[in-house]
Amino acid sequence: MDSSDAALVARVLHGEVNAYSALVSRYRDKYARYAVHMLGNREDAEEALQDAFTRAYRSLARCEDPERFGAWLFRILVNRCRTSGARRVRRGQTFVHDETALLNASEEHPAEQTMWREEIERALGELSADQREAFLLKYVEELGYDEMAEITGVGVSALKMRVMRACDRLRVLLREVHSA
Amino acid sequence: MPDWGRTTLELMVQELQHPVRLDESFDRRVMVRVRRVHAERRHRGIIGWLGAAASISRRPAWAAALAACVVAVVSIGITRGTRTPAIPTGHAIPVQFVLVAPGAHSVAVVGDFNNWGLNDTALVAENHNGVWSVSASVHTGVHRYAFLVNGKEWVADPTAPRAADDDFGQPSSALVVEASTQ
Prior knowledge:
- The complex is a heterodimer.
- By secondary structure, chain A is mainly α.
- Chain A has helices spanning about 5-15, 20-40, 40-60, 70-90, 100-105, 110-125, 130-140, 145-150, 155-180.
- The longest helix of chain A has 24 residues, at about 155-180.
- Chain B is an alpha+beta fold.
- Chain B has one domain (about 5-180): Immunoglobulins (Immunoglobulin-like).
- Classes of the chains: A mainly alpha, B alpha+beta.
């Protein structure tokens, strides 16, 4: 049976709701990484990802290019993370590391690995949401600026500026850590 | 990448690119939400379909059967399946079962209301250009049913809620026929 995104979307739209679980399994881990780094903790990330999948299901008939369901879903997730990030600022929560990722860290030098991981997460948390979003999309998700513009609705020039400023900020933050 | 700390940045990105794995319970939680949306939409859709039934009457015979199905569905309540067995109360109303299966050679309906097709009691559906339909009088109560395609493939009704338990290890759908809604 054809298991392409387009075929699965077609089956779901014809009422075969269980076919959607294949799309969930396909994109679950891939997009969990972005959500965890963007929001800073696994709990918020899972909630955002669940919401994104549910919103995508509700609006599936409006997915203009089912072959690119993944990109469409990712756009929904990016928007959802923005909302979640705003809530977090209002709640005054701190940016915390992904505990599971820490548990999976290198076993050769677990203490160093953990410290390095914490430094990274702390530095990411110091960035503005816009800068963190641009940095993660560009370097971690390895998207081109045109793709980033399509997903975020922000112009390419503005995105390049955000990435540059994010890098500048990270340089300062990581050097401060190493010089401390 | 910028010139500064190139190695540091590369190491940082390398660390951030490690996969984040969610367990399968995540899938189940998402699908619970999705099925809830599906059920809500289906409930709302029934009302909308009723308004469209008049225009269907001018279409081919199978469309008329589909319209009859809509009317039948409106006359019953639908809920998630439970382990509650069928509760015949003496009332029976006609229910139209419809499955879109253009490639099928035969389709039958089996459920607890016809002893799961044992003793030649399966309801054989008629083919209308790939839309298979059959009507049956079903007693009020909770029922589980499925379509038997080509005499061997057990298929749950894609437009109905899934029964919480799958008899015989096969998927089945849930149907509640309520006397109060007749």
